[in-house]
């Protein structure tokens, strides 16, 4: 027969441990083992999660360029015109220009109605065109990230105010360059990352619509 193990000697007491002490020791060892397992499992779970996030980041394409999708802004403009009293800008642009967004917007706070078209230029830059009705100075300042005017120009007989922020150290997003004009009840704001020549091309294209909108923007 197998001999029973002698009781474990507790060094601190200099005697064999009792049955209760043996049970308490084993329970404590079991608790510590479970605690270590829990920590190990948490660490493994965290590593697995980080690995999954890394895979997702690597697989998802990223680009600083604006979303490139085809939107028929001319058709959207015809539909939106039924909901507005002013003449909506609906420029005819040469090949190479396309739109990635077109919609009639109403501000949640100021309730200002605005017609918006997002343009991608032939040089793959971005210009957002917004035409607001009965806009106030606060609305325009918000569109331009509160930047200051740097000059004026006339394009297609329309006088524009220029906001050239290309040398600004601040991150102004899509307001690196901007142009604004007014005609009748409409305020026009062009803002984006394109160069001034492409801004002028868009300003030239919407000049007939601005003239039709009424006084205030022509010269």
UniProtKB/TrEMBL annotation:
Residues 1-34 are annotated as: Disordered. This is DUF4245 domain-containing protein. InterPro entries: DUF4245. Keywords: Membrane, Transmembrane, Transmembrane helix. It comes from the Bacteria. Residues 14-30 have a biased composition (Basic and acidic residues). It holds the Pfam family DUF4245. The chain crosses the membrane at residues 39-60.
């Amino acid at each position: 027969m197998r001999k029973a193990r002698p009781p474990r000697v507790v060094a601190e007491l200099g005697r064999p441990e009792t049955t209760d002490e043996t049970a308490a020791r084993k329970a404590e060892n079991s608790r510590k083992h479970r605690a270590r397992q829990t920590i190990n499992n948490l660490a493994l779970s965290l590593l697995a999660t980080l690995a999954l996030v890394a895979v997702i980041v690597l697989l998802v394409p990223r680009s600083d360029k604006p979303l490139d999708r085809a939107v028929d802004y001319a058709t959207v403009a015809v539909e939106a015109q039924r909901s507005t009293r002013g003449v909506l800008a609906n420029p005819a642009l040469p090949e190479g220009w396309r739109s990635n967004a077109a919609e009639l917007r109403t501000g949640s706070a100021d309730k200002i109605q605005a017609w918006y078209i997002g343009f991608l230029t032939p040089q793959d830059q971005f210009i957002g065109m917004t035409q607001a009705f009965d806009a106030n100075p606060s609305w325009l300042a918000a569109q331009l990230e509160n930047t200051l005017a740097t000059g004026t120009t006339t394009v297609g007989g329309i006088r524009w105010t220029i906001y050239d922020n290309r040398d600004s150290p601040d991150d102004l997003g899509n307001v690196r360059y901007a142009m604004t004009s007014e005609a009748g009840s409409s305020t026009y704001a062009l803002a984006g990352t394109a160069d001034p020549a492409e801004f002028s091309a868009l300003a030239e294209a919407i000049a007939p619509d601005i003239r039709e909108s009424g006084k205030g923007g022509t010269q």
